[in-house]
């Protein structure tokens, strides 16, 4: 059974940093491209970042480019999102999602709250 | 950046057909995917590559895509279909993935 489990969310002050993790199981993690998608409270879905299976190709949404860094460790079956210079508008549930064009499996999400 | 526009809400009686549109410039040239999200839950893929259904998704869910509009159709609507629905594409010109604005489906 494919499982994606996010962790690392919490309360952080504006300008602070946080690192999210996504632990994958039930499939060959190193063969799949991965993404982070977020959802602000009461709002729609927003794609955040993509990473290829090897980690060699990375893309970011304009809203996070230069502040967030996506990475992966295929030996540990894990995906990461390093978030720096956090702003109030980054407050959201962050999901990791498997896929290239479509996202066929999603984690349950981890809540990030940016507030003083 | 590429924009996908959905109606904010659609209401439908049980047993009837719900149609949710997703508008985008020449969206017919792209592959469209659809997600269902119930309150407090992660999104679930219900249609991929315009009209394919993942295993476990009822045949009542179907999709089409042409011109500037993609459509998700839910036939014989049930109370359990009440949820938010999002369309999504891969904008190859930017390599960004883009979600639609979302549609809340209410079963009357």
Summed up, what is this model?
With 116 residues, chain A is mainly beta.
Description:
- The complex is a heterodimer of chains A (116) and B (108).
- With 116 residues, chain A is an all-beta fold.
- Chain A contains no helices and eleven strands.
- Chain A is globular, with a radius of gyration of 13 Å.
- The model of chain B has no long low-confidence stretch (mean pLDDT 97).
| Terminal CA distance of chain B | 36 Å
What sequence of helices (H) and strands (E) makes up the elements of chain A?
EEEEEEEEEEE
Reported for the largest beta sheet of chain B, the result is: 6 strands, mixed
Given the helix and strand composition of chain A, which structural class is it? mainly beta
Would you list the SSEs of chain B in sequence order as H and E?
A: EEEEEEEEE
Low-confidence stretches of chain A: none
Beta-strand content of chain B:
over 45%
Number of strands of chain A: 11
Rounded mean pLDDT of chain A is 98
Largest sheet of chain A: 7 strands, mixed
Q: Level of helix content of chain A?
A: under 10%
Net shape of chain A? globular
Question: Could you estimate the helical fraction of the residues of chain B in percent?
Answer: under 10%
Radius of gyration of chain A: 13 Å
The whole-number mean of residue pLDDT values of chain B reads 97
Radius of gyration of chain B: 13 Å
**Content-based structural category of chain B:** mainly beta
Proportion in β-strands of chain A:
over 45%
